[in-house]
Model the fold of this input.
Amino acid sequence: VIERDPGETVTGMILGDGLVLTPHEIAQLRRIPELVFINCCHLGRIEDSNDARDANERSDYNFIAANLATQFIRDGVRAVVAAGWAVDDGAAKTFAAEFYRWMTAGRPFGEAVRHARQAAFDRHPGTNTWGAYQCYGDPDYRLVRKSDGRSGDDKKFHWASPAEALAMIENLASDLGNLADDEVRRTYNVDRLRKIVEAVEQNEWLGNGRICAAIGYAFAEALEFRDAIRFYRAAWGCEDGGASIRSLEQLANSIARRAADESRDAAEIIEAIDLLETLQGAAGTEVPRKKQRDNDAEAAAVATSVRYSLLGSAYKRLALLDKQRRKQAVAKMHEYYSRAMDIAVRKDGDRLYAELNALSGELCIAWQGNKRLAKDFRERAKRTESSAAARFARRRDFWTDVTRADAKLLNVLIDSRPTKADFADLVERYREARKRSSARKFRSVLNQIDFFIAMSSGDRRRRLTELRAKLGEMGEVA
Done:
């Protein structure tokens, strides 16, 4: 902590003469604690010695507490408790003692706060200290955990409000989405999610659209699409109208992905496409692409790159499964990914994913019709590969690795007789991506190769089939 000049005016937590803890000092801490409890009766008091106002006249202590807590959270602290206004000593002692009693017993942060508030409220009815504490962070964070990595409370969940349950579900979804090749941990988290669902049902909160949509998203992140579809549908049946348009898009995406990965039923993919196209039509954008270009401002107001990409993805899966509709499906795939790319460019968004898939569709259309590619196709494909390589140099995670490999694959497939050396390099690139992925998430790579195999012939198909076999050895989910 910096020792301040007596004449300098700052805002923060006063530790002593000239010593003030501010967000600036917090940002420079060498070691970041997991839990921070700021318990003082006049947080941030900075009254000038010449100012005759009583300190209690200040009304912004809650903002000072928020500033300090926010900085701690930004720096990686898991949970922060800070007094937002002057607190009663007796009630503050009760709150702190009860809070630490529950935390050291291995209870979740949110539950410890709830019990501490209740104790302060019950034992000190003449004060408002029970509500003075602002609490930030993960409500499921535990200061102490049992040796097996889970506490007895994992079997039973207690929340003060639906918002706490929602935060826990969203945190679990994030964890599921970021798992690498750890099937044990994935299974544990899925089991825990099912227990959370049981607790939510006991609290009679399955009528909450936001909670049902969050549960659907968490199951989708675990690639448990049957359950994801069930809860996304439930979200749209909730009377509170809490489900978002995004959750409807993800319902369609989950239906299409389940069809491609599990049921192999083209009819389910058509159901997903109908849902997305109906949604787009309701938004007023289901019009010919040329007309959209003539009225970009109006189209941009309601069209989304994500929705068009989901449509492109659904048609790509349909092309893979349904030979009768293959040519039309690939054409639709190209059309929708191209629209997604146009919107991304217009809105300064990320165009790389849509552009790569639009080019893949264009290549497959040429294969299906035995046509020559456009003169500038190779140039556009090379430019996309350069963009993917640049992103890979800045940030290395599963999706950047896969994008780089997919862009390389696209350029290799332009040649009618790709070389063995080209595919050897691709194996290494996909192997690097596999290190950052679970077997289930790596399935998306295998699906892309399966798509190209279905579209291709001759030397291309032979090389792709060999590539698919080698990638399958890296870990495929049955």
